[in-house]
Structures are given as C-alpha cells and as structure tokens.
Amino acid sequence: MNLLVGASPRKADIVLALMLGLLLATLSLMLQPLMSWTAIVTALLAFDIGAGLISNTTVSTNQEWQKQSTRRQWFFVIFHLTLYPLAIFFLSQSPMVSYILIGFLLIKTGLFYSRVLLPETTRG
Question: Is residue 91 within 8 Å of 38, Cβ to Cβ?
Fold first, then answer.
C-alpha cells in the first residue's frame, strides 16, 4: 500500500487521486461503443492511470519509491510503458479512449521518472 500513496499521504492527495481515477474510468466507459468485459477492464486501467498520475506527484509516494531498488523502479517504468499500452490498444473499443489513456500514461510515467529515477541519477 505504501508504494501506492506513500507512508503518510495527505487526505487531499488521496481525494484528488480518486477523483481523477474515477473521471478517467467514467470517460472511458462513456466513450466505448459497447459495454463489455473489455470496456470494464479498460476502465479499471483508466482508473489506475488517473489515480497513479496524481499519486506520482506526491512527496509521500515519491519518498517511498526512492527507498526501493533501482531495479524495481525501472521495472515500474518498463511495465507501464510496455504492458499497459498493449492492454489498452487490445482491450479498448475506441481509438479516442486509447489515445487519451496513452497520453495520461505517458504523463504518469514521466512524472515517476522525473521525480524518482532522475534524482537518483543526478545524486551520483
């Protein structure tokens, strides 16, 4: 759980993460032409991407991830830049949803890189 929100998250951060996650999940469902299991899984991915984007901006989450090994940090980045896009493109029934989610995913992963991995490399 600490890797999701950190050891001492602010309530406002949790609320914002939940709100963006719910917003992206709802948007994902609304833009899918058919309600199916693939639309629901895409909405779950959308929730994770939205909530994770906010979480990756918080000091609490970043401090927790900075305690992890560099290997684990890179696994997070590689996982989010390979499996997530594949799942989104294969499961989403709407190109618009795919592009929106990939855009948010790139922002989420970029924030993680710039706030967790980049400081590690500059510390030397």
Answer: yes
